[in-house]
Write a structure and sequence with these properties.
- By secondary structure, the chain is α+β, with helices and mostly antiparallel strands.
- It folds into two domains: 1-133, no CATH class; 253-454, no CATH class.
- The chain contains twelve helices and 17 strands.
- The protein has helices at residues 5-8, 50-56, 63-69, 104-108, 117-159, 205-216, 221-230, 303-310, 318-323, 355-359, 373-381, 388-392, and strands spanning 17-19, 26-28, 74-75, 82-83, 244-249, 253-262, 276-280, 285-288, 327-332, 343-348, 407-408, 411-412, 415-420, 428-431, 439-441, 446-449, 452-454.
- The strands form seven sheets. The chain has a four-stranded antiparallel sheet. The protein has a three-stranded antiparallel sheet with strand order 13-14-15, with no helix packed on it.
- Helix 6 runs antiparallel to helix 7 (221-230).
- It starts with a helix and ends with a strand.
Length: 455
């Protein structure tokens, strides 16, 4: 096996290096991502001038570094780049090289990759595009050389009075790609490029991610639904099957997740819709919205949101978390308000639903200020649109709904939405233990957390 030049250079003890700004690991100065924690280097951030390098520091690789780098290289499964055997993250695109490896030390030391999911995928796409371009160029060169050789042989053959050549039938190339037919047959390879299973719980999260990204690339929701039908996630009428798939969370156990939306949420990258949206089917997680009894700052500045974004991910299986795509969630982030301009977008990876995403548009009479009920309803109704599962189950805004009645370790309980109560400077909206989405509670109360994410 030939070791690429960029790996071979790491074995040179005299090679100048840099330090990772996140965890302090030593690496060659040409590295884009830290092989230990996955953080981008100065070169990746376009800060690799002499002044920047002098701030970070330079030194020669140690003998231990050289021995580790000289081992059998690892190929990145995402972009195909080769890495030193000791690398945990790809130095070209930042992808985790061995998802099964124990990452507890990295979590304990706070060394998490700071490159975003969309940045990593954009980089992988660029690497693959360059690889394809190089391959096409090489292929073109081979074709030109072959044609020239054939011409030369033909000219020589003319001088030797060649014997007549029998006509031959040209057979199709054996390796020619054939489009996959969408049969929906269990066990067959589907059009998304992964195997079709009978139901949601038969899939792995990696397989669902492949299907979801294929759906996300569709030109319309109708096309995405056809893919969902093929993979038995919805029935022939487009209704979502009510099956679940577990998520493992350290310190909590397993949380069953159900599909609630198809081609519904807006990708935070601005490049279309997420293929699949999931919500928890029980309340294994509980939390207060915030420590003080107000809704100032709404969802955006609530400690519950910060916990979901910054702390809970450390308890996730890192392979699954790397598959989740951030989305834009629209919420009243002011608190008490009568203006829909208070509804702004947040960049969320893990989140909880809004009132309107659960029960559809509301037309409540806000008894605390009936004269302005229409304004308060308009604020809630600007926080998204109802998920397809709840629409098909007939979830309404003014009554108990069995599909919204969720339980935890101690039975049925109330749970948070991310919606503020627009008529007061206190309270957030909740769903009570009967599934009624018209209730509210004080922010310091402990309520269930209905976890949501997209693939």
């Amino acid at each position: 096996m030939t070791i690429r030049a960029d790996i071979a250079r790491e074995t040179d003890p005299a090679m100048a290096t840099i330090f990772c700004m996140n965890c302090g690991t030593t690496m060659p100065e040409e590295t884009h991502f830290c092989p230990k924690c996955g953080s981008p280097t100065l070169k990746e951030l376009n800060l690799d001038d002499e002044r920047s390098r002098s701030r970070v520091g330079r030194k020669a690789l140690t003998a231990e570094d050289a021995r580790a780098a000289s081992s059998q290289p690892l190929m990145c499964p995402a972009c195909g780049a080769y890495n030193a055997a000791s690398s945990r993250y790809c130095n070209a695109c930042g992808t985790l090289l061995d998802p099964s490896a124990d990452e507890s030390a990295s979590r304990d030391e706070g060394m998490q990759p700071v490159v975003s999911d969309q940045d990593r995928h954009a980089r992988i796409l660029g690497i693959r595009q360059r690889t394809l371009a190089y391959g096409l160029a090489a292929f073109a060169a081979v074709v030109v050389l072959a044609a020239g050789g054939a011409f030369a042989l033909g000219m020589l053959g003319k001088k030797a009075d060649p014997a007549p050549v029998a006509e031959q039938t040209v057979e199709p190339a054996q390796n020619e790609e054939t489009p996959i037919e969408a049969t929906g047959e269990v066990g067959a390879m589907g059009t998304a490029g992964t195997v079709v299973h009978a139901k949601l719980s038969d899939y792995s999260w990696s397989e669902l991610s492949i299907v979801a990204r294929h759906m996300s690339a569709a030109a319309s929701r109708e096309q995405a639904l056809e893919c969902a039908k093929e993979y038995h996630l919805v029935d022939e009428a487009g209704n979502i099957y009510q099956d679940t798939l577990d998520v493992s969370i350290d310190g909590v156990g397993t949380v069953p997740m159900r599909i609630v939306g198809i081609y519904h949420d807006d990708l935070a990258s601005g490049e279309g819709k997420a293929g699949l949206t999931f919500l928890a089917a029980d309340l294994a997680l509980t939390r207060a919205m915030k420590d003080v009894d107000d809704n100032v700052g709404g969802w955006e500045h609530a400690p519950l949101r910060l916990w979901l974004q910054n702390e809970l991910p450390h308890s996730f299986d890192p392979t699954l978390y790397s598959l989740i795509v951030p989305v834009d969630k629209h919420t009243n982030n002011a608190g008490q308000t009568q203006s829909t301009s208070s509804v702004t977008s947040t960049f969320d990876t893990l989140w909880i639903p809004s009132v309107v995403e659960l029960c559809g548009p509301v037309s409540w009479d806000w008894s605390s200020d009936s004269a302005n009920s229409s304004a308060y309803n308009a604020v809630l109704n600007a926080e998204g649109t109802q998920y397809e599962l709840f629409s098909q189950l007939g979830v309404a805004s003014a009554e108990g709904n069995a599909s919204l009645a969720l339980g935890g370790s101690y039975g049925a309980m109330s749970w948070w939405t991310r919606s503020s109560s627009a008529s007061k400077g206190a309270h957030y909206r909740i769903v009570d233990e009967t599934g009624d989405p018209s209730r509210f509670a004080a922010a310091p109360e402990i309520m269930g957390v209905c976890l949501g994410f997209c693939l």
